[in-house]
Design a protein that fits this description.
By secondary structure, the protein is mostly helical. The chain is 68% helix and 4% strand. It has a four-stranded mixed β-sheet.
Length: 432
């Protein structure tokens, strides 16, 4: 393609003003929020408020990013008959600052959105594990519909960020910049960002199918309400749109915006990106186990760096075996109403595969379960109960070592004994 054609392509991009739009998802998402507000207006359940808050937060985050991207500084190619070398360097440094701001903003928003979407699925999963909280089927479907709509909003946001990255790549592709070393860093950063966004759109397509299949199963089971069915149908049109526009941008970038060397680099980087993102998912997935090497590292660390916790855990096990169990044999005949004869601690591999499960039922003043380094201490809660969560604590212990207990104590102190950040962190790092 001639330089004139490249210039016209750039001109078209500039005239379009907007690199992306939330059209196609904004209206269906607004209808979703209205539906949730009407449905939950009389509900006092924290889980309902959580869903509604998350839905509103996700929409606001994506809208703000799309607006920010569309109002980002643009590059205008300037051709001077006489121009000093320093002028060009100054311009490229300014461009580098603008590009870095754009990439960092898109990446930060992406992580924020992923966390919000992930939390919806996480809440749904945690509620399903609590026998005291019977979650209505329509509420579970609500969570899936929120995730489905949110994924499409995220896709639009990625397309917008990718459109701006393409614009920057196009403007920085002219040969006169090739003699300046900084240009290669800027081009590579933009290319990496562009490919990452493209790869994430593929992840969204895969995750959307997973959620759509789940909603379809709910429909076949007769669980879907007519209102929920309409909410899904309103989004279906947008979901059927392919990523053709982004693909066209990619093709144009390869053909017109990159040198032959950069095209070769693109191919190599694309292969790496595809490999990096192939197993990624934005969805909360309790069935996705950690890599076995993580288990090994956690065990080794808790025997060394985290040995303080492990030693305390061992002390509790020995105290139960040497002191509490024999004492129970004496007290049980004397006070049968208050004491039972213990059998001593039972030891086996914990269900999370990272710890030693120790049944110390009868140990005084400690309810449920507690993680101490290599030990998962069970105070009459049962082998399977919360083992995944305790595995999260085992990872914390392996990472923080001697700082784990001070962090845990601080977390509980700040939350009146109810856990706080240390417990939320363990949920995020759970082991299945």
């Amino acid at each position: 393609m001639t330089k004139i054609s490249i210039f016209l392509l750039a001109l078209f991009t500039l005239v379009s003003c907007k690199y992306g739009s939330n059209d196609g998802v904004k209206k269906p998402y607004k209808e979703l929020i209205n539906s949730l507000e009407n449905k939950y207006e009389d509900s006092s359940a924290p889980s309902d408020k959580f869903r509604l808050d998350r839905a509103e937060e996700i929409k606001q985050i994506a809208d703000d990013q799309i607006d920010h991207t569309n109002s980002a500084p643009t590059f205008v190619r300037k051709y001077y008959l006489f121009e000093s070398d320093q002028n060009v360097k100054d311009r490229l440094n300014d461009m580098n600052t603008i590009v870095s701001t754009h990439i960092n903003k898109c990446e930060a928003t992406s992580l924020e959105l992923q966390k919000k979407i992930h939390s919806v699925g996480k809440q749904q999963y945690q509620l399903s594990l609590d026998p005291s909280k019977q979650v209505a089927a329509d509420r579970q479907v609500d969570s899936d519909i929120i995730v489905l709509h949110s994924l499409q909003y995220m896709k639009r946001m990625y397309e917008t960020c990718a459109g701006l990255s393409f614009h920057y790549m196009n403007e920085l592709s002219i040969e006169k910049y090739d003699e300046y070393e900084i240009i290669f860093k800027i081009r590579e950063d933009l290319l990496r960002n562009f490919m990452g966004l493209s790869a994430m759109i593929k992840v969204i397509a895969k995750d959307s199918k997973t959620i759509s299949d789940r909603i379809l199963s709910a429909k076949e089971a007769g669980v879907l309400t007519s209102e929920q069915e309409e909410l899904v149908a309103n989004l279906a049109v947008d979901m059927k749109e392919s990523t053709q526009k982004l693909q066209e941008l990619t093709t144009e970038t390869l053909k017109n915006g990159l040198s032959s060397e950069m095209q070769t680099a693109y191919t190599e980087m694309q292969e790496k990106a595809d490999d990096l993102f192939k197993d990624k998912t934005i969805l909360f997935d309790p069935a996705n186990p950690d890599h076995p090497i993580v288990h090994v590292l956690v065990i080794l660390s808790n025997l060394t760096w985290g040995s303080i916790q492990t030693s305390i855990g061992l002390g509790i096990v020995l105290t139960h075996a040497v002191v509490i169990t024999p004492l129970s044999w004496i007290l049980e005949p004397l006070f049968p109403m208050y004491f039972m004869k213990l059998r001593g601690p039972t030891l086996k591999i914990a269900r999370n595969k990272m710890q030693i499960y120790a049944d110390v039922c009868g140990f005084p003043a400690i309810p449920s379960k507690m993680s101490m380094g290599i030990f998962e201490l069970d105070f009459c809660a049962g082998y399977s109960f919360a083992s995944a969560h305790e595995g999260g604590h085992a990872k914390q212990s392996a990472l923080l070592g001697p700082f784990y207990l001070p962090a845990a104590i601080l977390s509980y102190a700040l939350n009146m004994g109810h856990g706080g950040f240390i417990e939320e962190w363990a949920d995020d790092w759970y082991v299945h």
